[in-house]
Amino acid sequence: MRSGTQVLDLRPPEADHAAGGRGGSLESYSSELQHIALPTVAAQVFFAVMGQQVHGSRSEETLAVLDDVAHALSNIVDIYAPESETAFKALSALQLLGGQFERGAMVFRTKDGTELTRLTVQRGDMKLAISVLKAAKARFRRGP
């Protein structure tokens, strides 16, 4: 979740082990934390929200739509950049402010021109973002 915001837990109460619920398996919990490439997430979110796949070509319009989806995602959930070969760090609000996603969400260019690549979103956050964007009736389109 975005740092400094309230956590919205959409899980049913019985899913919480700490509260005495049945919960799920450790494997299902850890899969929610799995990092997925941002361009893949943007395409999956687009499909889930719009009900259609992004065009298979890497046209300017397709790349721009994926950039728009990534921007919307960054307002709902954390976007991560690799900190090392095995660790990821969430982009800060300051990094996101004034920056932009480029090349179909493959790159984030900060305000100072720094390019961040290999961006990811956690699987559980992708599911949350889909729910939020559907509830908000979000639409992603670019004119010719």
Number of helical elements: 5
Shape: globular
Gap between N and C termini: 34 Å
Name the helicity range.
25-40%
Mean pLDDT: 83
Strand order of the largest sheet: 4-5-6
Helices and strands, in order, run as: HEHHEEHEEEEH
Multimeric organization: single chain
Structural class: alpha+beta
Structure notes:
The chain has 144 residues and is of the alpha+beta class. The chain has a domain at 36-135. The protein has helices at residues 26-32, 38-50, 60-74, 93-96, 123-135, and strands spanning 35-37, 80-82, 88-90, 100-102, 107-109, 115-117, 120-122. The strands form 3 sheets. Strands 4-5-6 form a 3-stranded antiparallel beta sheet. Strands 1-7 form a two-stranded antiparallel ribbon. Strands 2-3 form a two-stranded antiparallel sheet. A hairpin with a 5-residue loop joins β5 (107-109) and β6 (115-117).
Features:
7 strands, alpha+beta, 5 helices, two-stranded antiparallel ribbon, 144 residues, 36% helix, 3-stranded antiparallel sheet
Entry summary:
It is built from five helices and seven strands. It has about 140 residues and is an alpha+beta fold. It has a domain at about 35-135.
